[in-house]
Specification:
heterodimer; A: 2 domains; 74% helix; B: 312 residues; Rossmann fold; five-stranded mixed β-sheet
């Protein structure tokens, strides 16, 4: 766009129709490339409404139970995480407390990732150049991108409203519920559009978008923590997530903040298109960062490289473990007053424990263990990603034994998950207001390390024998193990069946008594699977995608 | 290592992937201190052979020896003595090119800093950029700098110049000549005939997993005919009657034909009788040798004596 002649040419023909030529075609093209993704996002987010509604109806079956909940719901933890519980005495209000923030943030993230995927990522890969080279207006593809991703917010919001209506929730509140979530999603389409123009890489655009979302989330968290009773504070108006919250579905049902969200979406998209007019294809306003010209000796070692490749994963999961640990500890005591032990869901949640506080703590330890297990799988999947991405071949063409290479990846996943368990357990203990000690909870969490090792063993075994399916199959095994350990009693699974799954086998401290045998057995199975898998990996072909 | 052990010796190599046969009795030999060209179209088995030589794939039959060792059993030790440059380079997107060069070099045992700096300058590569932002050509340069900065006794190069511009190809050619002058060995798999003709002492041409031609390039040339183009003072179809003229294509006074080495003298004497205005003779190119095995023009040599121009 800096070349003078084509620019004059373009200016002459620069009717709105000119820059948008091929808009319809672009919309169809983007839909075709993304329909499954869009469908999954919309379906998964919307279906949370009936699921959460049903479980809350079961947890708080009577108005008396809801009133009791309303008296204790306004804790700093709830305010910080999910917003002010302004209508905790009604089923609609409880639904908002339980799911509104999750859905709004998830839809915001979906908007960021999808706008980047079809925008900056395509430009980075050179696909945009190919399209622009044909008879396509300068803004047609970008606008189509914003329109399709914006459409996801609209459809998701509509589905949410309709599902809420079908659960016989009040009509006005149900429409505001869907509208407020869709509005936040649309606002982040505008924000993501800007990020895609500012950064010159897709990773940069995604990071920038997620950072903006995190800042807006923290602003509204600070606002809600400092609120008097459940009154809106001035600070919450400095965050579009706050605007959505302040629509207050199932209470005041205010519509005008929705207009502000729409205005933000439109402003972001218009500004993005204006920047697009001014910049060169492939460039951003923020130049790509440079890095060191040399690798340190540590980075050039297999362990150092594996650690560097996992750095972002490690930091974000450790951060998640810290937040989860602190959150679990701070709500443990409050939960004993909320849960009704005669309720089926509550009973499943607490396991077989009679002592409610220890049951809750044991369940939180199980949550910590699941996080650590998920981290271990994601981290160790990095090894397969190196192979399928074609980067392993160049490394093995150097003087590097296959066992040493996979060993480095195992070390990062194993040590990282151990640190996660100890840290989140300890934080749960010290933030529990005396319900348990940090040391005891760190120990209780660390007891799950053999289950995490077993997940790694499964992945290593499959990595040897079925490399192409190893990652998805391991996640399936993980998913089933988690569901059985969490909800086994709800599906009327026997105690023995639950005890024979990885996460169910570990004694759920501090509710259960400690027994060493399951830990030893799980570790032994993990080692056998790992050894078989590594040996097979040592004798098979290297298989890039 | 004793000088008469070849750097690479492969005989009767077989490799199957499920139902497909990738290698079907392939032979390949690279003598020490020579540059060996390895030619074949996409899917003919070049990369599979190289991956077996690097111990990344396991062969299903035949023998392969690399620097006197077994490429599968002795992979870790052998790889200290070789450098590999793939044709499709994958790098870590969030590491810089310079970091990738160091990681790949140190995995082999070390990096020659002077050479590294010199190569970065010659290939005009900025090592502080993240690999994510590199073009195909720049990713290729990262692998080339990492491979060429080593003092390895064997270089295994799998279409190493794909994505490079002609100026950079020239830099690459110079680098390989230097490697050869130092007495090191090179296996160069390539698509580019000019590159192989410039650099290689021997050539192996493969097709569908089998070796169809191999030997010293100058010897192979002897086996094939010289191409002659002439402009005569009369209708050039008279040449059809001259013994030794093959593949004649006549177009008015212009003609192109091929001649075997033994008949060249007699044919030239006969042609001079038709008072040629122009005469250009060119030795058989590698491209001709190659196309001969792949259904190109030369394949019909000797069967079609006269063709009219335009058919060709």
């Amino acid at each position: 766009m800096t070349v003078a002649a084509p620019r004059l040419h373009a200016a002459a023909a620069s009717s709105a129709a000119g820059t948008l030529a091929g808009f319809g075609l672009s919309v169809r093209f983007i839909l075709r490339r993304n329909w499954l993704r869009l469908l999954i996002w919309a379906a998964v987010l919307a279906v949370m409404i009936p699921i959460v509604y049903t479980s809350q109806q079961a947890t708080f079956p009577t108005q008396a139970a809801r009133n009791a909940y309303a008296n204790v719901a306004n804790t700093p933890a709830i305010a910080a995480m999910t917003g002010l519980p302004y209508a905790a005495g009604s089923l609609g209000g409880i639904l908002v407390i339980k799911i509104w923030m999750t859905l709004a943030v998830a839809l915001g993230l979906a908007s960021i990732f999808l706008v980047t995927r079809n925008g900056r990522a395509d430009e980075e890969a050179g696909r945009t150049e190919l399209l622009r080279g044909s008879a396509l207006g300068r803004h047609a593809f970008s606008l189509a991108n914003y329109a399709v991703v914006g459409g996801l917010s609209v459809v998701t919001g509509l589905l949410i409203s309709l599902l809420a209506l079908s659960d016989k929730l009040p009509a006005a509140g149900s429409w505001v519920l869907g509208g407020s979530i869709a509005g936040v999603g649309l606002a982040f389409v505008g924000i993501a559009a800007l990020c895609g123009q500012l950064s010159s890489t897709s990773r940069g655009a995604n990071s920038l978008g997620v950072a903006v979302l995190a800042v807006f989330y923290l602003i509204r968290a600070m606002a809600d923590v400092n609120a008097h009773d459940t009154n809106v504070t001035a600070l919450s108006w400095f965050s579009p997530i706050g605007w959505g919250q302040n629509m207050r579905s199932y209470a005041q049902d205010t519509w005008w903040p929705f207009l502000a969200l729409l205005a933000l979406a439109a402003a972001g998209c218009v500004l993005a298109l204006r920047i697009e007019t001014r910049r060169d294809l492939g460039m951003g306003l923020v130049p790509a960062r440079r890095g060191p010209a040399r690798a340190t000796a540590f980075l050039a070692s297999p362990l150092g490289l594996s650690l560097r490749l996992q750095r972002a994963t490690l930091i974000s999961w450790l951060f998640g473990a810290v937040v989860a640990g602190l959150f679990f500890g701070s709500v443990a005591k409050a939960m004993t007053t909320v849960l009704d032990p005669s309720n089926a869901v509550a009973k499943a949640f607490l396991g077989g424990s009679h002592d409610m506080l220890n049951g809750i703590l044991g369940t939180f330890v199980l949550f910590n263990a699941m996080l650590a297990g998920a981290f271990a799988l994601q981290s160790l999947s990095g090894a397969r990603a190196e192979e399928s991405g074609g980067r392993l071949e160049s490394q093995l063409a150097g003087s590097l034994a296959r066992t040493r290479w996979i060993g480095a990846h195992i070390a990062v996943a194993g040590a990282g998950s151990a640190v996660m368990l100890l840290l989140s357990g300890w934080l749960t203990g010290i933030s529990s207001d005396g319900a348990a000690t940090g040391t005891a909870m760190a120990g209780a969490a660390f007891a799950y390390w053999p289950a995490v090792l077993l997940m790694m063993g499964v992945l290593l075994f499959l990595h040897g024998f079925l490399p192409r399916l190893s990652v998805s199959l391991s996640w399936a095994v993980y998913g089933i193990s988690v569901v059985v350990a969490m909800f086994g009693p709800l599906f009327s699974l026997s105690e023995t069946a639950i005890r024979s799954t990885p996460f169910g086998a570990i004694p759920r401290l501090p509710a259960d008594d400690f027994t060493l045998l399951p830990l030893v057995v799980l570790t032994a199975i993990a080692v056998v699977l790992a050894v078989l898998g590594i040996r097979r990996f040592g004798s098979r072909d290297i298989m890039p995608e | 290592m004793s000088p008469n052990i070849p750097a690479i010796e492969v005989t009767g190599l077989h490799k199957r992937f499920g139902q497909t046969t990738a290698l079907d009795g392939l032979d390949l030999r690279v003598d020490q201190g020579t540059v060996a060209g390895f030619l074949g179209p996409n899917g003919s088995g070049k990369s599979t052979t190289i991956r077996i030589l690097l111990g990344l794939l396991r062969s299903d039959g035949g023998t392969a020896t690399l620097l006197g060792g077994d490429p599968w059993q002795d992979a870790v030790e052998l790889h200290r003595r070789l450098a590999y440059v793939p044709g499709d380079v994958s790098l870590w997107p969030n590491l810089t090119g310079g970091q990738a060069i160091d990681i790949l070099s140190r995995l082999r045992g070390g990096v020659d800093n002077a050479k590294r700096d010199d190569l970065l300058e010659r290939f005009e590569l900025d090592p502080t950029k993240k690999a994510r932002s590199y073009s195909k050509g720049n990713r290729q340069k990262v692998a080339l700098v990492a491979g060429l900065a080593s003092n390895a006794e064997l270089l295994v190069l799998d279409e190493p110049t794909s994505g490079l511009d002609p100026l950079m190809e020239e830099v690459f050619t110079d680098c390989i000549r230097e490697v050869k002058a130092e007495g090191r060995s090179v296996l160069l798999s390539s698509h580019i005939f000019a590159e192989v003709e410039k650099l290689c002492d021997t050539v192996t041409i493969i097709r569908e997993g089998q070796t169809v031609e191999s030997g010293r390039l100058d010897e192979l040339r002897h086996l094939h005919r010289t191409t002659v183009s002439v402009v005569l003072d009369r209708d050039a179809s008279v040449l059809a009657s001259v013994p030794g003229v093959n593949d004649l294509v006549a177009d008015g006074a212009k003609a192109t034909f091929t001649v075997g080495e033994a008949e060249l003298g007699g044919v030239l004497a006969a042609v001079s009788a038709y008072s040629p205005h122009q005469l250009v003779s060119s030795p058989p190119s590698l491209e001709d040798l190659f196309l001969r095995h792949y259904g190109g023009v030369s394949k019909d040599a000797g069967t079609a004596p006269v063709q009219t121009a335009g058919v060709r």
